[in-house]
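Sequence and structure are kept together here, with a separate record for every protein. An example record follows, reproduced without changes.
>
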Amino acid sequence: MAQELMTAVVQDRYGEADVLYLDRIPRPTVADNEVLIRVEAASVDRGAWHLMAGLPYPLRLAGFGLRAPKNRVRGLDVCGRVEAIGSSVTRVAVGQEVYGIAVGAFAEYACALESKIAAKPARLSFAQAAAVPVSALTALQAVRDHGHVEAEQSVLVLGASGGVGIYAVQVAKALGAHVTGVCSASKIDTVRALGADEVLDYRIDDATDGSHRYDVIIDTGGNRRLRDLRRALTRTGTLVIVGGENGGRWLGGIDRQIRALCLSPFVSQKLGSLMASENTEDLEVLTAMIDTGVITPVIDSVHTLTDTAVAVARMVDGSGCGKQIIATR
């Protein structure tokens, strides 16, 4: 019997967004612990770009494909309806609306581990829910688990209008912190609407000049020098570096994380980074926060599968504010 086909955005070589194209490929089949999702919407995150570009190079050495990607379909954030379930799946049922992290979400169908999905927040559309998983999980864990943010603390979020930053501002506010966000001038109103107590234009205000010290700094993918970040921390403050860019093809920005981790045991400040955990439990925490109105996703643009390359390019150039969504139907 012939395998059913689906439309997907694929790539056969590493590169920028122009390597992506539409193709008809076999529909994936579920393993015992997986769920097949009929994708309604997906979103673009920085991790999907790294896998598309094959950068930094250690990603390729880690098993994603040395000369070309082993998995041709990109996309992690997903929201849709359960089409089929594996034999060991017990928490979700066929027809249920779910969101979470899948393999190859830029397609009509995608598989996800049961341990990486949760019921879709009731108050969100498919597009809004697709904007949540990767970025909001990262923000939640950065603020709550690594920053250990508490009420009345002062928190600085660098990159407050980015995918992770948008949620970091909201999670920190939900924990009762006084939040300062840093972004470009055109995005100040958006960050202020998220609840930031103060918003700085990074082109005018140097948030790390030491004129104000923060209990916690969440640096979402920036490239500021470690010594500048430390200068803006209190004596016993906490720095959480989330990702990093412009660090070259080999390190990809992770050199700051490595130096922070090496230095942390020898100073009074806590310096570190995180590798986000993709899990149902934290997705359910986010669902509760969304359903009570504590956090809200921000969408910049909605694209069709045909325009996925446009969505990826817009995420990379940073011209938008909020998530780039891929609507599959």
User: Anything to note?
Assistant: Residues 118 and 281 are 8 Å apart (CA to CA). The mean pLDDT is 93. DSSP finds eleven helices and 15 strands in the chain.
